[in-house]
Prior knowledge:
The protein is an alpha+beta fold. Among the domains are: about 10-80 and about 225-265, Nucleotidyltransferase, domain 5 (2-Layer Sandwich), CATH 3.30.420; about 80-225, 3-Layer(aba) Sandwich (Rossmann fold), CATH 3.40.50; about 355-440, no CATH class; about 505-610, Dna Ligase, domain 1. The strands form 9 sheets. Strands 11, 12, 13, 18, 23, 24, 31, 34 and 35 form a 9-stranded mixed sheet that branches. It has a 6-stranded mixed sheet with strand order 3-2-1-4-9-10, sandwiched between helices. A 4-stranded parallel sheet has the order 6-5-7-8, with helices on both faces. Helix 1 (about 45-60) packs across helix 6.
Amino acid sequence: MPPTPEPRPAGWRVGADIGGTFTDVIALGPAGEVVPMKVPSTPPDYGAGVVAATTDVLSSAGVRPDAVIAMLHGTTVATNAILAMNGARTAVVTTRGFRDVLELGRLRRPVLYDLSWSKPTPLARRRNRYELDQRITAAGRLEPAAAEDEVRALAAQLRADGIEAVAVCLINSYLRPDEERRVAELLRAELTDVFVTASVDVSPQLQEFERTSTATVNAYVGPAVHGYLTRLEAGLRAVEVSAPLLVMQSSGGLLDAASVAQRPVQIIESGPAAGVTAVQKLAQLIGLSSVVAFDMGGTTAKASLIEHGEPFVSADYEVGGGMNVARGLSSGAGYPVRTPSIDIAEVGSGGGSIISVDAAGALHVGPASAGSIPGPACYGQGGELPTLTDANVMLGYLSPRSLAGGRVAIHSDLAAKALSVVADQLGAEVPETARGAYQVAVSSMTTAVKAVTSERGRDPREATMVAFGGAGPLYAASLARELGISTVIVPEYPGLFSSLGLLVADTERHELTPYRSGFADVKALAAEFEQLAAKVSGELGADAVVDRLLDMRYHGQRFELRIRVPDGELTDDLLTEVRARYHAEHERTYGRAGTDDLVEFVNLRVRGRLLTPVSIEEVLSRPDPDGHERSTRECRFGETVTTPVVGRSELGAAPVEGPMIIEDMDATTLVPPGAWVHLDAFNNIVITWSAA
């Protein structure tokens, strides 16, 4: 049994998550007090919004800033640098003859029949990729080593070329990491104001293209992330919040800001991972064995699968593509990244997604978004293009007066005006157009859910859906019906659930070494695991829980599955059990399995976790009645229906048939006709579909 966390120290913990439209903050007090806050994001200086929202939430709680003992953060700054292509001017330093690894890549196309499609532009241009006269052989020998004079001369060239970040990626360096680190240190000594990263420090694995791509992404976003975290910490100190800043990693664990600044590639999926972590903790609390986490915000909709209390963690994925998980024929659209990341599928449908009509007269939703500035037309901030939020207002699903606890005013006339342009193109009425956009969005979102369920050999009908995000509860019941999912759970604080995930996340570190023939002996394999475990325990402390994992595949395969090694002494019998687990997982995922003689190890991994002292049950304790005034609105489904509008606290344990609108401060839940809704013991809204 893993050790239980120590009692929570006195003081306030603050979780702040940046979204494309809103910045969400939750403060948790020493006596279990929960103070939520949802404010518009502040691009391009997102950190200023975090500082302002933190100040506001502490003021609402009536506590001084120095009472904060932990500042927890989920951010999109790394992702934004790639999506906007405004990262650092990046160079790649590699072995002579390997300058074009980024261009060559893999023969993968995300769209087979689009002749106009081309690979994404490398983050380091060819003229900024430099070669050294050195080589590490496949056996790990230096033939020859890089000459110091050549490296110093290269540093002068990099300075002259205005390079801001450097990725050092030598051929076969995972076999001889000291050589690559030596080159990186020489460059750092010469280029003191340049961000320099060695590929073996971010992805010490075989497969040259993926390792080079990961290091290049790390370098490309490095200066932006370092600058952002530096400014954020300074801003927090200026308002007297001096607590340590921990940042959510793509893997679902927190890490100190200083470590993140060195390896920012670890936080590409920072915000989405926080939400999945909250769902993971909720699934463990309730005892759900299979859960689809559905997160819909202002820009995108995301899905992830959690089984037996654990999310799928990918060894590699892509960023910058239409879907961020490198899977099958969908890969090739973005930049490969080989760091642990929760397997999250994403589509460009969010509350701010723009509704349009193509040349053939078909209705589209996204992927372009109105963001927070100017935002949907109904916000009255200058936006003129119709969005899903405008459609939801016209359908009667959203309040015609205000959102986010009254912080965002709604102008129904502006929503109608924006949608009328699309309606005229379709030759339809505005309500019909709005309903069509809603249905198109639901159809688009099924792609994300299927990517993490049926494409993994899992039946979505066997899962429960947990919906969150500012827009997720509006679409979850309809999406679940489309997929055959019978039950949807909408937790407390759904619009701030990613911030809540920050409060309940563990601190986490990962270490990896590629498998080598010298580990064929069980004792040598155990010794290597112990060395990796000692490293993460030294960084996290003696109370860290350490998990051992193996990346495994059948001989000749290109892709691996990650299998957890059971606790206990590593023996031949234990490895036999690991192989059996691999066969079972392979058959479940791909429909067939091989034999023990075909199995090969690829990587040894350890994950160290320092357990959080906060339980999700504590955060989701039943609040006082919110005093929501019961009312009705005319809502359009297949037809227009007079629909009750209630607060969460007005629901009870007895199921009530829809339609119904349930309004929280941070999100609105839609219960369509034919669905039933009740409240469970943890204050979750539970929507179920009738047998009919």
